[in-house]
Amino acid sequence: MAKFGSRNRGLSTVGAGLGVIALAVGASALGAGVATAETATSGAYTFTRTVDNASPKVGDTITYTTVSSKSGLEGYVNRLTEIHAGCLEFVPGSAKISKVMGGLPGLGGAIKETVESPNTSQSTATTKVFTSSGWYNNGKNPITMKTSYVVKCDPGTYGSGLTVGATLMGGGAGTSASFPEMGPTIVVQATDPTGPGTDPGTDPGTNPGTNPGTNPGTGGGTGSLGSLSGGLGSLSGLFGSS
Question: Which of 1, 23, 65, 178 could make an SS bond with 163 (beta carbons 3.0 to 4.6 A apart)?
Fold first, then answer.
């Protein structure tokens, strides 16, 4: 499996009848919060992958969208495997696939979205495998898969990829193609400091001891002086009597 965190764009192929595989890089790393896109082709199939937030922070939820379209003969995709960093935590119930449902393929069928569950016996910590007996696929009826993950990664760069299994892919039956480092890439940002101790003790001791001891002993001093006055009066009387 490709090492995530690198931008080696090497591609691998599995199976027969694939023809030439090409990878066209779309808008990559456009900035915080901006979706990025990567496109790969295999025979008559074209796969496009985007992520809604290429610069998430720890704890953010991001959503990958993969679109499969096919020119020429009708095809059926029976397996979509999303390759992702192990520090991304899949959100249960978030996988949704839009495909033709009802009526015959190309004859009255409508594109509808359904919630899909990963194949737990085939998925791993870094892959989510979605299987079907065959999702109808051609130029007018693309298949769209959306999956969401909670970012629990250290700051850094993390890649993603895709593996596809289909019938009549590029003219071959029961073939597959693997793009383990197709992308898009996300760059996890460092979380902003929380700022502990912000404005600690705001206005501590405001107006402490306001007007302490205001007019302390009021009347107490007067009483003391009165006693002294009385004492002097007695002393005056004492001298007067002499």
Answer: 178
